[in-house]
Write a structure and sequence with these properties.
- The structure holds two protein chains of two kinds.
- By secondary structure, chain A is mostly helical.
- Chain A has a domain of 214 residues.
- Chain A has 13 helices and four strands.
- Chain A has a two-stranded antiparallel sheet with strand order 1-4.
- In chain A, a hairpin with a 2-residue loop joins strand 2 and strand 3.
- In chain A, 46% of the residues are buried.
- In chain B, strand 1 and strand 2 form a beta hairpin.
- In chain B, the strands form two sheets. A six-stranded mixed sheet of chain B has the order 6-7-8-3-9-10, with helices on both faces. In chain B, strands 2-1-4-5 form a four-stranded antiparallel sheet, covered by helices on one side.
- The termini of chain B are far apart.
- By secondary structure, chain B is α/β, with parallel strands linked by helices.
Chain lengths: 326, 281
């Protein structure tokens, strides 16, 4: 069995450059063949992939149940809107700035709760999501515009070209996804990524084996919050109007489901599952009323027949050669 | 290899720990000599595992001092204790079940590497170099415990005996000076525990001090240089295996009560289970 698997794996590995190249070409050519409407769907798919990947670090890699990821997305989006409209900060600069603000918020807000386990952490993060949303509605210091939200009039510019058409955003978002995929792929196979997995598997054993579990958890939460915050900038620029309605608890739940549905800790799983969450409802527009029903049904069916997710994460292997074992 | 008082590596001085009204460890003194195999034995509930948890920073003692090679361990977090050179295993195995054996063992090397987030993303030269070093160290430990051929198996697929070995390999991978084993032979059959004794001696001969809790007297008497006996949180006897076996206090603690029968029964049960498990596989 092992040799079959390794043959298949080595075929993919040997030709991985071709696979990736073909995929990138296909993705790059896609907007030429689909309508603006569908390009927009793909843009939101991409934003959801960014968010899904950010949450996957926290939920999938470290096993910290966070159902309030939208709070950090909101912090990023509002940071962008406020700094862009009031101070005229360049949107490109706002991507890292929003990321850092959200990461800082993630670090500070989760500091006191990070030692909580499972459902306890889940409840606190739900509360966190609601606190942020309600704060935004209450318009503190006249900063957030209350229930109406804020507008973002600035646009991304690259080489004198304005990013405004759906296809422009398509390339922007999916380039961000590609960059993130590259970084996360490296992390997964590194000391940091392994430390996260040790904590997920058994946090006491991880600590007793020499892993600073507090560091690992805080790093994951901060990084996940930061990525969500940076995605918030792209979202704000795309939407041009942001309001608290975009950052509800329900959105956090859907993100959480994307990670679970895709397979905990699986990067391709996140892409697949967020695609399913975005594209399928569009295809099933006529059944819009039953969307949540179908969604719930899908979750139940998944949990029964494929609890490991659509595309479970694979473990790294030492690439055992034939006949090498003793 | 005879331990001398000067060569003490780990010393506990009047360490106490209460859980509510229960005095789990009561003014406990112990020295573990460098290069020795020291065993801690005693009836169930005597407080042996609590002593281990106090040393490794999982619990904090109410009073007393614990020093390791001159450094006080009290107040350190468990991962800092590992970094200082004390590695441990658990009585109830705590492996990373869904990771491969190789990844499990790499965990031990985590505290010996330094690469942070940025270095890992940029894949710097320093990171690659330490990764190579960590891999070769993990390989060495897996080979030492004779489970190198299982490196790509998920931990949860291993047989009981191999799981015990994997835990020891993981602890060894942190490059410890003191290895603490909580019932390493628990649930092993006679052949397996013989192999384990060879491995533990090998580890000792490579310069690592071993401190273990064990119920299997054949193992304890077979490999220990020094034995300490605990009952109700106190040390009741100490010495070479022969001395301890003759000590009336130990005989009373072990043989004078029904405890011993229960223990023998429990051990026989565990052995039967292990053998049954093996025949199924």
């Amino acid at each position: 069995m092992r040799s079959g698997v390794s043959k298949q794996a080595s075929f993919i590995r040997a030709h991985s450059a071709w696979f990736i190249g073909a995929l990138v070409l296909a993705a790059a050519a896609l907007p030429l063949f689909i309508s603006d409407y569908w390009t927009d769907v793909c843009v939101f798919w991409g934003i959801n992939v960014l968010l899904g990947l950010s949450l996957n670090i926290i939920v999938g890699e470290v096993g910290l149940f966070n159902m309030g990821q939208m709070a950090f997305f909101a912090i990023g989006a509002y940071t962008t809107a406020i700094l862009s409209e009031r101070f005229g900060v360049n949107l490109w600069l706002l991507i890292p700035i929003s990321g850092l603000v959200a990461a800082g918020a993630g670090y500070v807000l989760t500091g006191p709760i990070i030692h909580l386990r499972g459902d306890y952490l889940l409840m606190v993060t739900i509360g966190l999501n609601e606190m942020i949303r309600i704060t935004l509605i209450n318009n503190p210091f006249g900063l957030t515009g209350g229930p109406n939200g804020l507008i973002v009039l600035d646009q991304f510019r690259i080489f004198g070209r304005v990013i405004q058409r759906p296809a422009d955003f398509y390339y922007l978002v999916w380039s961000a996804v590609a960059l993130l995929l590259f970084c996360l792929g490296r992390l997964q196979r590194s000391r940091v990524g392994r430390a996260w997995n040790y904590v997920r598997e058994d946090s006491i054993a991880a600590e007793a084996t020499g892993v600073n579990t507090r560091w690992a958890k805080a790093l994951a939460f901060t990084l996940g919050a930061g990525i969500a915050g940076a995605a918030g900038t792209i979202f704000a620029a795309k939407m041009m109007v942001i309001s608290p309605d975009s950052f509800t608890f329900m959105e956090s739940v859907i993100l959480f489901c994307i990670v679970i549905l895709g397979g905990m800790g699986s990067i391709p799983g996140v892409i697949l599952a967020s695609g399913a969450m975005m594209v399928l409802p569009e295809l099933l527009r006529n059944f819009a009323q039953y969307r949540m029903l179908l969604f719930g049904l899908a979750m139940v069916v998944m949990m029964i027949f494929r609890p490991q997710g659509l595309w479970p994460s694979r473990r790294w292997m030492t690439r055992l050669k034939e006949g090498e074992g003793e | 290899m005879t331990p001398t008082a000067d060569a003490r590596l780990l010393s506990l001085v009047s360490v106490s720990k209460n859980f509510g009204g229960l005095r789990a460890v009561d003014s406990f003194d112990l020295n573990v000599a460098k290069g020795s195999i020291t065993s801690l034995i005693g009836p169930n509930g005597a407080g042996k595992t609590t002593v281990f948890n106090l040393i490794t920073g999982i619990y904090r003692p109410d009073s007393g001092s614990i020093t390791f090679g001159g450094t006080p361990l009290i107040g350190m977090l468990p991962h800092q204790v590992v970094e200082a050179g004390v590695a441990r295993t658990f009585q109830t195995l705590r492996l990373f079940e869904n990771l491969t054996c190789f990844e499990n063992v790499l965990a031990g090397q985590h505290c010996r590497c330094k690469a942070g987030l940025v270095a890992c993303i940029l894949n710097t030269q320093a990171r690659r170099a330490e990764e190579v070093r960590a891999h070769s160290e993990a390989e060495r430990c897996l080979r030492q415990l004779r489970i190198w051929h299982l490196r790509d198996e998920l931990a949860r697929n291993l047989s009981y005996g191999d799981r015990r070995r994997l835990e020891i390999a993981r602890a060894m991978a942190s490059g410890p000076t003191l290895l603490i084993l909580d019932e390493p032979a628990g649930g092993l059959n006679e052949r397996e525990s013989d192999e384990l004794m060879d491995i533990i001696r090998e580890i000792r001969d490579s310069g690592i001090t071993v401190f273990l809790i064990e119920h299997d007297m054949r193992v304890v008497m077979g490999i220990s240089d020094h034995v300490a006996v605990m009952e109700y949180g106190r040390k009741i006897s100490e010495g070479t295996p022969e001395e301890v076996q003759k000590d009336p206090a130990v005989i009373e603690a072990y043989l004078g009560t029904d405890d011993e029968d229960e223990q023998a029964e429990a051990q026989a049960d565990a052995r039967l289970e292990a053998e049954a498990g093996e025949s199924v596989q």
